[in-house]
Amino acid sequence: MKIIVLGGAGQMSRVTVKDLARSQDVTEVIVADLNEAKARQVAFESGEKCRGVYADAFDKPALVQLITGADCVINGCTYQVNLSVMEACLEAGVHYTDLGGLFHVTRKQMAMDEAFQKSGLTAVLSMGGTPGTINLLARYGVDRLDTVETIRVLNGCGDWTKTSAIFSVPYSMRTIMEEFTVEPVAYLNGEFVAVPPRSGLETIDFPEPLGPIQAHYTLHSEPATFPVAWKEKGLKNVVFKLALPPDFHEKVRFLADLGFSSTEEIQLSNGTSVAPLDVLEAMIRRLPEDPDAKVQDCDILRAEVLGRKNGVETHYTIDSIARENQRYECSSTELNTGVPPSIVAQMIVKGAITRRGAYAAEMGVDPEQYFIELAKRDMYVTVSCQTPVGIDTFTPVEAQRQVRTD
């Protein structure tokens, strides 16, 4: 099995490469990145199966040449290249998966479903932790209900690392700034509704070691794909909320309010033009790391599924908990995001995923088989079911009221 990881030198994809390299059925891993030196370093560190090469995901002719003959492409690049990489996969005849399209791009990717079906190819979209694993947590609950009214998808992050570093970023700063400033979209009463960034603030009682933490709306792909997957189940409401460590949240909020999320260039007094977000990213790259820091964190994914079974209101809560990991030498966020596309790429090539087309995980990946693979990699899923359950906070009327008053 030959797998190509685009953006393979990135923070999350390094874990993807490690997992592929440790998998018995994988014979070759191509670590492809704009930074060829880093790609070669990641390949060297990951083992003899791996090879690092230069790749520009926007150069489609060169990309087609690179991926032809591979079994699957894992796209770990920024979501802006997703459509272009998918087109290259169609041309080369290669299966595909990625880390997400941040709602709007994901919807465009789903429109390529027919093209992938006709080519006999599978593209599992948005297959990181969230979106990705969390979609399959939701499906586990949905599969056990006759009808479904509401799905809440929640991501809680905790970080207790003792470090001298001024500012530690768990994943792409560009993505984080977009999550804080781009208008989220929720699915409420059967319609897509725009809500203010960082609105819908509420305290979520996550499992230990995280516990209660405040979460807010942010733009994500789950509200784009769930209504497509479960329209026949009567799904009316889908919301996504993110809870970052309070100290980190306040720092990001401050930067966002100052305007550092902007990609529009501003003119400096010396006549130079710069985009604030580019400056922020460059400054973060310059920050010294703390070599003595020992990561201690957690990343919890939760799907709350409310519906009816045999006419009785039933509420499933499905959690997946990841911690910092010694085997992979990574944080919980890196583990939660980097491992899933490796699992799914291998499932596609081995025939464990048979549906062809371009779709999100909940439409073609068996959750229980996937959960077994997660457990092999130190990520465990727990399920609780309540019936009957108080549902005042989940009714469409309450959801609409909350949006209006935030």
Automatic annotation (TrEMBL):
Domain of life: Bacteria
Gene3D superfamilies named in the record: Dihydrodipicolinate Reductase, domain 2 (3.30.360.10), NAD(P)-binding Rossmann-like Domain (3.40.50.720)
UniProt domain Saccharopine dehydrogenase-like C-terminal: residue ranges: 128-377
Occurrences of domain Saccharopine dehydrogenase NADP binding (ranges): 3-124
SUPFAM superfamilies: NAD(P)-binding Rossmann-fold domains
PANTHER family assigned: CARBOXYNORSPERMIDINE SYNTHASE
Designated name of the protein: Saccharopine dehydrogenase, NADP-dependent
